[in-house]
Amino acid sequence: MKLTISHDTTYRYDDQVRASIQYLRLTPQESERQHVLDWHLDLPCPARAQRDPYGNILHVLNVDEPHDSLLISAHGSVEIDESREAEHDQQSPLPFLRFTRLTQADEALRQFALHHCGARRDRNALIELMFGLGEAMPFTPGITTVDTTAAEAFAKRGGVCQDHSHAFLACARSLQVPARYVSGYLFSEDAGHLASHAWVEAWLDGAWYSFDVTNGLSRPERHLKLAVGLDYLDACPVRGMRRGGGGEQMHARVLVNQPVMTLQAQQQ
Amino acid sequence: MLSRTAAELYWMSRYLERAENLARMLDVSYSLSLMPQDGQGTGLDELTMPLLITGNMDDYLARHGELDAERLLHFFAFDGDNPGSIFSCLRAARSNAHVVRGRITADMWENINATWLEMRDIAQQGLQSYGISAFCEWVKQRSHLFRGAAFGTSLRNDAFRFIRLGTYIERADNTLRLLDSRYELLGDAAESIGDGSARGYYQWNALLRALSVFEAFTEIYRGSPDKRQVAELLILREDVPRSLRACLGEINQILASLPGVNGRPAQRMVASLEARLRYTGIEEILDEGLHVWLSDFILLVRRLANAIQSSYLEAA
Amino acid sequence: MARILYDEMYDASGAVRPHYREFARWLANTPPEQLAQRRREADLLFHRAGITFTVYGDDQGTERLIPFDTIPRSIPASEWRVVERGCIQRVKALNMFLADLYHGQRIIKAGIIPAEQVLANEGYQMAMQGLDLHRNLYAHIAGVDLVRDGDGSYYVLEDNLRTPSGVSYMLEDRKMMMRLFPELFAAQRIAPIDHYPSLLLSTLKSSSPVDDPSVVVLTPGHFNSAYFEHAFLAREMGVELVEGADLFVRDEKVFMRTTAGPQQVDVIYRRLDDAFLDPLAFNPDSMLGVPGLLSAYRAGNVVLANAIGTGVADDKSVYPFVPDMIRFYLDEEPILKNVPTWQCRKADELSHVLAHLPELVVKETQGSGGYGMLVGPAASKAEIETFRDRLKANPAAYIAQPTLSLSTCPTFVEQGIAPRHIDLRPFVLSGKETRLVPGGLTRVALREGSLVVNSSQGGGTKDTWVVED
């Protein structure tokens, strides 16, 4: 399946920003599953690309002129091989056993993971865990923020894809299964779900398998991967700092193939 | 030099100079408030003066509601929650100095640290028991002592230059405000002074004493102060160390001696301001209207301070 | 249990050891009033020079002194040369381990250290995977903590490869001793240490491929407890002391903001933990770091000393493997001994530890500063039971070691002179070559019987002499 993406993010600031710097993870990579046909970023000034610690393509954008808004655009098309379920990797998956502040498993999450998986550490067990979390945490925008931890969201019995992913990571790692956060785009016919998306990958039988808790999907057929990391903070599409500027409003517009969708906050 | 270091040094001396100026303001207001008030009132007008000059009146009213002599004095001098109090300025100066302790001489650091420690003790005693005039005198003396230590022990390097820069920016602003506010307070009476009106005499005298230029005035003008002479003295006289002209002259020299090209906007600005004062007579200023002229210049000095801030103190 | 204590000054028969004879003679001939007077002078001078330990959040113009003891810790030169070779060997192996771990991982493939032990370790940084560093150096500055057991042999208690501190006290203690007691330095040959800052600067410069690189010291700020040391080292080396806000990243290069405009920085001697270095890559709430620093680092445009990710090698759970690292990378036998260590993550070792808690020292694997530890022989029954629960709840977070007796050194205390326990932290610098100045920082536990020497726990310091014998 060929996916065509157009993703504009606009920041508006209350005051002049004197200078800003952003880490952008907005460029997909070639892999067994995805073939990048064309891709480009439209940025207010040229940015260099490098590999980040997780192997993602990272652009570092410096804006040194005073500005009161910032427009970051990514466009392109990618061919997804729907028949591929898993991806292989040369690097050891073991660093993805580590908890982070956002993915720390508390007793409730540990028990939840054990309840669903018992002694099993296979794909079926994790699929059950995925459905279990989806039921335990129905998609509920507005009750969590980008800062909410897995344990907090789980206790609130709800959240969005970021929270679902963090909760899954906490559970998988508590079972000693390496798992990582994935940020990317999802093509969805029903406009109820946003096109910028997050899901997870877990290491099973020597390869990374996808689990999309929010949509209850274990086959990444409509998922275009941008970046991976230990949690949201490592993989999120835009992470920046600025000098001055006061408050900010962020507006993102993502088009995946045909549907037009609008989101108001960084959170998905 | 690191911009942050320069900023700490600059603000350290600005806060210290500000504390001294606040003490000078308080001193004159307090002594005038004790004078017969032309039949009307309590001298509260005088005591609110320093708050009006520093723009802290709203804060005071929000906190205390009504005007009360003792609260006014405490708010202005000792209140640690009022960022504009003498207490807060000395605390801020000490905290700036602490950060750049390695960049100032031990004599300077010990002076500023001891000043802060004594300030805390005096605040414990209370203003009334220490004495208001004695307190103002103490603040001035501590400031003199610091300046002496700076002049007597500091290497003549960029650190010294930024310390001096802070002093003169703060002082220029203060001289302008003090003159403007006295002039405002006198109102129409200011115009008719010279005829020996008692009120005008005390007002101008108090201002001259507050700025430690009473002796200078009598030596230069040999007579009772009037508006024209006081304004000339405080704005245009190059030889009066607290005059606007003297301050801008120093700033001009200091900026010219700092390395780098990023300070050009500030350098241009101060050179043109100084030239303007050099080639202006007091009549032109009075023709334009003293208050209008002073307000205009207060703004220009603030712009200069902003240019210094962005060129040197937060460079890039 | 009767312990055999090793005293640095007196042998078992109570006779003065040869390398202390000169000092003992001087001590016997100096009137006590004069000694007391000099000690007061030392306090005053330390206060005046501001050689202090900032109490967090202090706004009161008061700071605490780290107690300084005027009786030196003395080491015969022949003995020192062994310690020196041992430290160099150890730090070389640790640097090779880090280079290997972040590249080919030979040591894991050889089965010497379990992959999970290091790769899932919190100190392991993905950011370092495959990144080539100039000279393959990670821990440019290392502190090796040594203690002596009852028989006088040296043991490595732990390695400090992140941001080891204390070197300023080593230097200031020496200055103070030379000032107070110049006659002692005239009477015998004591190896000089005051060239440490220049060695440090040349080490830092040699860590960069740039000719004559620009070096800065990065501090978390004056609220940090070690701020004095940061300022001290910057001043002694003649380089800028910067905070995160003084630096910025543009085009993958690091610049500092100066009154004369931006100035590029090539080497950052950072005294800031990994998690705070770059708020865009690590802890997002940190205002102490430099946004974009990691991108400049990974692009090879700036050197961090120490490198990111050295914490994996000084973690207490990795410590037991260091002797094997020395054998694996250098093909040498370790010169300095490790303290025998039980790893509580292993079930059989845990049960041994639980059965012997009153005799053991139990430490957290991810902790420092002596807070998260149990000193069995010094703990009450209740403390031991509380710790037992913590240990059982999370055994992987702890290791245990036998209680070493720690050597003692005569020390001035309220009642006069009495033996107190000490340790030794030599500072190992790795650049073009690996070297150290003779001696190090001697810390002393001032409370009678105490084995905890950390300054945060009321420890003091002594000047450390290497005396030609």
From TrEMBL, chain A:
Any GO molecular function: peptidase activity
GO biological process terms held by the UniProt record: proteolysis
Key words of the record: Hydrolase, Protease
UniProt domain Transglutaminase-like: residue ranges: 153-215
Classification via InterPro entries: Bac_transglu_N, Papain-like_cys_pep_sf, Transglutaminase-like
Domain of life: Bacteria
Hydrolase is among the record's keywords: yes
Protein name as annotated: Transglutaminase-like putative cysteine protease
Native source organism of the sequence: Pseudomonas fluvialis
From TrEMBL, chain B:
Domain DUF403 intervals: 1-313
Domain of life according to the entry: Bacteria
Pfam families xref list: Alpha-E
InterPro entries listed in its UniProt record: ATP-dep_Glu-Cys_Ligase-2 (IPR051680), DUF403 (IPR007296)
Protein name as catalogued: Putative alpha-E superfamily protein
Protein species of origin: Pseudomonas fluvialis
Automatic annotation (TrEMBL), chain C:
Origin: domain of life: Bacteria
Gene3D superfamilies, alphabetized: 3.30.1490.270, 3.40.50.11290
Domain Circularly permuted ATP-grasp type intervals: 72-445
Regions that span the bilayer: none
Name by which UniProt lists this protein: Putative circularly permuted ATP-grasp superfamily protein
Protein's organism: Pseudomonas fluvialis
